[in-house]
Amino acid sequence: MTRTHGATATVAFAGAVRTFGDVQAVAGLDLTIGSGERVALLGRNGAGKSTSISLLLGLDEPTAGQVRLFGDTPQRAVRAGRVGAMLQDTKPVPRVTVRELVAFVASTYPKPMPVDGALALAGLDELANRRVDRLSGGQAQRVNFAVALVGDPDLLVLDEPTAALDVAARRSFWASMHAFTQRGRTVLFSTHYLEEADQNADRVVVIDQGRVIADGSGTDIKQAVGASLVSFDLQGRPAPAGLASLPGVLSVTVLDGRVRLRTADSDATAHALAQRGPVRGLEVTSAGLEDAFLALTSAPSD
Ligand SMILES: Nc1ncnc2c1ncn2[C@@H]1O[C@H](COP(=O)(O)OP(=O)(O)OP(=O)(O)O)[C@@H](O)[C@H]1O
């Protein structure tokens, strides 16, 4: 896990709260990100990721608490050209070409990278002269990425950058992101795709109900919730009672007709389970980040 000591943090949320009427979208968020970190903000729908990102970019103000970028207000950091962002639901600008749009955005930054460099990093060389309102969804996402990085920002913020991309487009997106971060830049991206968080970030911050509930490497998070998973078929029956009190069991989830027991001791759990009667389709596997995430964000079902 990486922490920032001494040097000014790139990103600092301190007790940040944002309420909308009765809804606490961000409920006391404390998060510090240091220079050069690649951080995934991982959470289910409505966890507060986009609201946190809006606060971070100065598009919205916290109801309480504080958000700082490079030790300054988000607005000043953004105006100084230190931040590039890719947000959800951006509408294409009609009638300009990809190169014209990226060149225009470059002209608004103090130290942009060459436009051709940004186009190449985003995989847009072949589409440079195409109108931006005539692109596929995946191609439009690449333009959004070029727009985010052409200012050569110190911090890149990406809100669900791979939403709506197919597998091949996702892979090529992450390759572009890695090419950019080799330059030592800080990246914060939000995602629902748990394996993507694990594969593309050094640090995974899990948020739920507007708060940080876990923070570490993908491996740290898996270990925090137990390394193994014992699962079995319900065969249409309700989940038996008392599973949570079997030896080693840390959490119980029921998904697609299967019970999944996260356990610190898979041998003891499987043995105790078998002693209670016949078990169908028993499997013991190591827990993936997906399972860790479900365990962290689900209420116990037993
Ligand atoms: N402008 C708003 N007015 C009222 N409620 C809002 C507003 N923006 C967000 N919310 C609520 O705040 C909570 C957090 O929303 P947010 O969009 O930050 O979550 P998210 O983690 O980004 O979700 P998703 O993954 O679905 O994009 C949700 O309950 C949402 O309905």
TrEMBL record:
Q: What is this protein called?
A: ABC transporter ATP-binding protein
Q: Sorted alphabetically, which CDD domains does this protein's record hold?
A: ABC_DR_subfamily_A
Q: Where in the cell is it found?
A: Cell membrane
Q: Enumerate the Gene Ontology biological process terms.
A: response to antibiotic
Domain (ABC transporter): give its ranges: 11-234
Q: Which GO terms describe its molecular function?
A: ATP binding; ATP hydrolysis activity
Q: Which GO terms describe its cellular component?
A: plasma membrane
Where is this protein chiefly located?
A: membrane
Its record classes its membrane topology as: Peripheral membrane protein
Q: Which SUPFAM superfamilies match?
A: P-loop containing nucleoside triphosphate hydrolases
Q: Which Pfam families match?
A: ABC_tran
The UniProt keyword set, sorted, is: Antibiotic resistance, ATP-binding, Nucleotide-binding, Transport
